[in-house]
Amino acid sequence: MVLTREYGKRESPMQLLLVLSFLSFLRITPGAHAAPPSNFPSKIYGVNLGSWLVLEPWMLPNEWVTMGGEQCDDCLTCISTEFALAATYPDDVDERFAVHWSTWFTQDDVNNLQDAGINAVRIPLGYWIVEPLVNRVIEHYPRGGIKYLANGLDMLREAGIQVILDHHALPGVQSANQSFAGNCTLTPQFYTDYNYGRTLVWTAVMTFISHLHPQFGSVFSIEATNEPTMNATQTPGFGDFQKNFVRTVRAVEWLIGVDVPGCPALEGTPNAKNLYERLAQACATDTLGLFTPPVTEALNTSFHTLRYIARELEWKIDFTACQERQPITTNFMDILWQDDDPPNPSDAAIGPQAYDHHLYYSFGGVAAANPEAYLQNLCNRNDTQQDVVDGNAPVWYGEFSLATEFNATDEFLCKWADAQKLIYSQNAGWLFWSFKLESTNPLARQWSYFEGLERGYLTQDPSQLHDPDVCVPYKNSTASKRDSTVRKHPCGAHKHSNRFAH
Ligand SMILES: *[C@@H]1O[C@H](CO)[C@@H](O)[C@H](O)[C@H]1NC(C)=O
Ligand SMILES: *[C@@H]1O[C@H](CO)[C@@H](O)[C@H](O)[C@H]1NC(C)=O
Ligand SMILES: *[C@@H]1O[C@H](CO)[C@@H](O)[C@H](O)[C@H]1NC(C)=O
Ligand SMILES: *[C@@H]1O[C@H](CO)[C@@H](O)[C@H](O)[C@H]1NC(C)=O
Ligand SMILES: *[C@@H]1O[C@H](CO)[C@@H](O)[C@H](O)[C@H]1NC(C)=O
Ligand SMILES: *[C@@H]1O[C@H](CO)[C@@H](O)[C@H](O)[C@H]1NC(C)=O
Ligand SMILES: *[C@@H]1O[C@H](CO)[C@@H](O)[C@H](O)[C@H]1NC(C)=O
């Protein structure tokens, strides 16, 4: 991005205002704490729709076994991923998953989310939901998910719940040994030009459909990559990919007439036939440098991929449907996710962009494994402040849970829920992992939002806490007050009836 250094010297106040608003649109104003763009709630109180369209067997072990899966500690040694199940049951895997997709997330769940005051959800998706991207010779995944996604989005839209489409399981696999990546492998292959290219096609298709398909009207953000390999020296090209991800979103928006400041409006109305012409026209007048070779190639491929998806959805694309749409908020894991000199995703921003921080204590390495140490650590953390300093704002906590490395009491879990919600709502808000687990799963106590509500750990109104001062005794600066502030945590008083039958 090249901008003149001279702004503010000779311009009139109006020109200056325009330049400044352009700068703030680009989110490159140094040190600015950008307000969230208007297309998402000013504070997100959300949950993940985990295990719906990317299934993680640990969350629903009984159903997984019923589907034909297996349980094992090392995911390489049994049928523990969608890939492995699809490879084992090639003839009817689609039917097996159709049952899961239609029962794991339903209108009842949407009603419960609405009753619980949830205003946003993050939906983990695999690349295979855009079916033409799958190389069926060596890659095995179920087909048909896109219709369930469209129906689910429609229910969410009706309920006024806004949506982040989270590219959670990427082509080639982005993280080793993880069922959430769709395939369990020791050698992630996502970090190659081929797989970055497939991901850009996915991104283009999701951008088109989010703006044009009426059922996708609740989508405000698309997340590029869930939890990539943490060591940045093992993710070559990832910074360039991040830039091309944003360019792809903005390029699609430009082609279909969603306002992209800095891009002159293209003449004429887009339709399925003139997209190639418009692409050529846009490339020729590209002032923002959107159309790098990988982006141009991905767009060119995305047009027929989009038509394939439209046929699957029995949807006649109406290119005039998006005129009132706000640009998509592009979303990345924050810079704190990777180490070893990672690229800063804020370098990729063109237009509204937000960042996603994940924090789990249960996997170790964060704090000593006891209640005092957890609260001491959490209440004194500065991840949010560090993200703001790094230009990674607005930032939401896209995953967290109540899970611990020790056996937690009910009283501790009330505090643990309060303290996390308090610390994680300092910027754009939070999204719990996950909305539910299988009800017979003992892990549901600490990983299911609905069960946390039922047990009274989580407040009925997500913006509230049982005790807004939960962190006071643990703050280093106020630690001397500790003895005088120790008191019974008021959580137990808020227990309520079992509203969530599941
Ligand atoms: C993946 O699992 C294998 C076998 O359990 C282990 O040897 C390897 O270190 C793991 N790799 C990562 C990156 O976790
Ligand atoms: C999927 O995982 C299997 C088992 O680890 C591996 O052999 C295969 O190469 C992986 N395929 C892809 C496309 O990731
Ligand atoms: C990151 O990966 C590189 C290359 O594989 C390795 O040399 C380095 O030690 C790793 N860093 C950490 C913190 O594991
Ligand atoms: C799109 O791909 C077609 C071939 O499939 C090619 O003829 C055309 O030049 C490409 N357009 C752009 C803008 O790259
Ligand atoms: C956050 O804390 C770490 C040390 O724990 C420190 O290095 C860093 O500068 C702090 N960042 C901010 C923004 O305060
Ligand atoms: C938690 O409690 C269970 C059942 O009482 C016990 O088997 C387990 O060892 C305990 N775990 C820890 C970390 O204390
Ligand atoms: C707060 O106090 C704990 C325990 O004394 C210490 O480990 C931690 O580094 C302190 N954190 C900050 C941010 O000062």
From TrEMBL:
Residues 487-502 have a biased composition (Basic residues). GO terms for molecular function: beta-glucosidase activity. It comes from the Eukaryota. Residues 1-34 form the signal peptide. Residues 98-436 form the Glycoside hydrolase family domain. Residues 476-502 are annotated as: Disordered. Gene3D superfamilies: Glycosidases. The keyword Hydrolase applies. One of its GO terms (cellular component) is cell surface. One of its GO terms (biological process) is glucan catabolic process. Keywords: Glycosidase, Hydrolase, Signal. Belongs to the glycosyl hydrolase 5 (cellulase A) family. PANTHER family: GLUCAN ENDO-1,6-BETA-GLUCOSIDASE B, GLYCOSIDE HYDROLASE FAMILY 5 DOMAIN-CONTAINING PROTEIN. This is Glycoside hydrolase family 5 protein. It comes from Russula ochroleuca.
